[in-house]
TrEMBL record:
Claim: Phosphoprotein is one of the keywords in the record: no
A Pfam cross-reference name: Shikimate_dh_N
Gene3D superfamilies the UniProt entry points to: Leucine Dehydrogenase, chain A, domain 1, NAD(P)-binding Rossmann-like Domain
Domain Shikimate dehydrogenase substrate binding N-terminal: residue ranges: 15-98
GO molecular function terms noted in the UniProt entry: NADP binding; shikimate 3-dehydrogenase (NADP+) activity
GO biological process, one term: aromatic amino acid family biosynthetic process
One CC-aspect GO term: cytosol
Keywords: Amino-acid biosynthesis, Aromatic amino acid biosynthesis, Oxidoreductase
SUPFAM superfamilies membership: Aminoacid dehydrogenase-like, N-terminal domain, NAD(P)-binding Rossmann-fold domains
Protein name in the entry: Shikimate dehydrogenase
Gene name linked to the record: aroE
Length: 256
């Protein structure tokens, strides 16, 4: 009697983004699955040039797709492709985690908030009352949400400022640097391979009172952080934030 070969179905998880071959998520989850002995799970990249390509990617993988992470530049654009959005993600205005139900319904969450808060909070001191958020993309929205919850006043710095909460890089004066002791880089400036790049702020006015947080994790010490370190500021990169948000995403995907 011939034994029927049972084919194992792979549980597929994916990262949705653009030019994401460098991706942290794929390596992180592949290692995680290996450690947990989950040989029936895989993590892949949905590297798409336009968010309009997402439905096709989902359709191609619909039998096995359990969840997705979303990265630059689709954290805002992905809203139009979701069936449901978690209250917090709706408030923030950015989604970086998607859970797929058995019926194929897509629900959006934001785990950047959790990751950033977990990573930032242990470093905060009493004088960290005011913050500058460099950049206005999807990740900056999660950062602003956390700062609001922690009662830290913040100002966005943008190349194209709009509204009261935003100023231009040219407006970042000595006085602003000296009164804003927390500075968070939410721009991609300084990411490998363009490691010489950094946001254009007057670093000469930084001091040991400053805390510089960079959402970038590759390289581990960006030019932005290096310039802070030279002025004896406390520095932190985005690796722990990424790990924490990934773990939160994993819990969301596996919640019954």
């Amino acid at each position: 009697m011939q034994e029927k070969k049972q084919q194992k179905t792979k549980n597929t998880y994916a990262l949705v983004g653009k030019n994401i071959s460098y991706s942290f998520s794929k390596g992180y989850f592949t290692d995680k699955f290996e450690k947990l002995g989950l040989d029936s799970s895989e993590y892949v990249n949905f590297d798409i040039q336009s968010i309009e390509e997402l439905p096709l990617k989902i359709k191609e993988n619909k039998q096995h797709l359990k969840g997705m992470n979303v990265t630059i530049p689709y954290k805002l654009e992905v809203f139009n492709f979701l069936d449901k959005i978690d209250k917090k993600a709706h408030k923030i205005g950015a989604v970086n985690t998607i859970k797929i139900s058995k019926k194929g319904k897509l629900k959006g969450f934001n785990t950047d908030v959790y990751g950033f808060k977990k990573s930032l909070q242990p470093l905060l001191e009493n004088h960290h009352q005011k913050a500058l958020i460099l950049g206005t993309g999807g990740a900056s929205k999660a950062v602003a949400y956390v700062l609001k919850k922690l009662n830290i006043n913040y100002q966005f710095v943008s190349r194209n400022p709009q509204g009261k909460k935003e100023i231009s890089y040219q407006d970042v004066s000595k006085e602003i640097i000296e009164t804003h002791h927390l500075i968070i880089n939410c721009t991609p400036l300084g990411t490998h391979p363009n490691i010489e790049d950094c946001p254009d702020i007057p670093y000469q006015f930084l001091s040991e009172k400053h805390l510089l947080f960079d959402l970038i994790y590759n390289p581990a010490v960006t030019t932005f952080l290096k310039k802070g370190k030279e002025k004896k500021a406390t520095i932190k990169n985005g690796l722990e934030m990424l790990e924490q948000q990934a773990e939160k995403a994993w819990r969301i995907w596996n919640e019954k």
